[in-house]
Structures are given as C-alpha cells and as structure tokens.
C-alpha cells in the first residue's frame, strides 16, 4: 500500500515538473539583472525627457546634460545616450546603450520591463535583436559603435 502512495506521489511530482516551462525558469531575472535593468530604464526616461525638451539635438548626449532629468542618485557612467530627430514624423529616436560587456545581465530585465518589445534587447551587427521579434536597425550614427552582445533600448520621444 505504501508503495502505491509513493508511486502516486512521484507521478504527481513528475506531472507538476513537466508543466513548468524551462524557459520561464531561466528567464527569471536575478537581482543584478533587475537592478541594471531599472538603472537603464531610468536613463531611458531621462533621455526621453531630454529629447522632448531639446527637439533639435542630434548625436551623443553627455551625462551632464541628463543630470537635470535623472532622479537623485541614479547617475551611472555605464549607460550612453544617443538622440536623433525623426526624418518623417515629429519627435526623436532615443537609444540607450552601453559599450561595457559587464552590463549583459541587464538584457533579460530590460526585455521584461519593455514587455518583450522589439525595441529592447541585445545589439547584434547594428541591430537590436530580441526573442520572438524581427531585428530593429539602430540609427546609422551609432550602429557601428554599439558592441555586439550588449543591451540596447530604443525609444521614441514625441
């Protein structure tokens, strides 16, 4: 009788484990990933506010220029910002990226914060690539500057 109960319990556990998606478990962000992603999100918001306040800006935006738009204590030398006015519609394209491979853990976190948008992911040969989305080309001004394998988040400021 005990053997039957043990076999039933083992079968139930096997059923539960088969329902857990392996990719979900691996995609759960770590604390470092979430922290880096939140930091990048703060820079993205600051860059959008900067682009709205300075619609003619084109090119790299210095860290000092973003300070008025960042919350106290959120400045980080890790993130870079590039802004370019849109050619056909009002507003600007804002790109937040890094040149440091140490920020790679942020990729999972930013994809989740962006709700798996095509505009948040990893740089690959001048494009942003994210699972389940088509590649999105980076602006020509920085496409060659962003190293492959680093996190990139594109936004529209309008």
Gap between N and C termini: 70 Å
Mean pLDDT: 89
| Major β-sheet strand ordering | 1-2-3-7-4-5-6
Strand count, sense and barrel status of the largest sheet are: 7 strands, antiparallel
Q: Please work out how many helical segments DSSP would assign.
A: 5
Strand percentage lies at: 15-25%
* Approximate helicity band: 25-40%
Low-confidence stretches: none
Q: Rg, please?
A: 20 Å
- SSE string: HHHEHEEHEEEE
The total strand number stands at 7
Q: Would you tell me the structural class of the helices and strands?
A: alpha+beta
Rough shape? elongated
Structure in words:
The protein is of the alpha+beta class. Helices cover 37% and strands 20% of the residues. Strands 1-2-3-7-4-5-6 form a 7-stranded antiparallel sheet. The protein is elongated.
Q: What are the SSEs and their pairings?
A:
Elements lengths: L1 H18 L2 H6 L3 H23 L5 E3 L1 H4 L13 E6 L6 E6 L8 H8 L6 E5 L2 E3 L6 E2 L13 E7 L1
Antiparallel strand pairs: 1-2, 2-3, 3-7, 4-5, 4-7, 5-6
Helix pairs in contact: 3-5
Give a brief rundown of this model:
By secondary structure, this protein is α+β, with helices and mostly antiparallel strands. 37% of the residues lie in helices and 20% in strands. The protein is elongated, with a radius of gyration of 20 Å.
């Amino acid at each position: 009788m005990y053997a039957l109960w043990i076999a039933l319990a083992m079968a139930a556990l096997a059923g539960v484990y088969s329902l857990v998606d392996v990719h979900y478990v691996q995609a759960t962000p770590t604390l470092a990933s979430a922290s880096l992603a939140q930091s990048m999100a703060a820079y993205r918001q600051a860059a959008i506010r900067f682009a709205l306040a300075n619609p003619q800006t084109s090119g790299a935006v210095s860290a000092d220029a973003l300070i008025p738009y960042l919350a106290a204590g959120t400045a980080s030398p890790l993130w870079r910002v590039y802004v370019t006015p849109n050619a056909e519609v009002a507003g600007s394209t804002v790109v937040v990226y890094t040149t440091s491979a140490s920020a790679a853990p942020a990729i999972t976190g930013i994809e989740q914060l962006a709700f798996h948008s095509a505009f948040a992911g990893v740089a690959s040969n001048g494009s942003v690539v994210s699972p389940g989305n088509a590649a999105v080309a980076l602006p020509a001004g920085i496409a060659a500057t962003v190293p492959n394998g680093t996190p990139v988040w594109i936004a529209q400021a309008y």
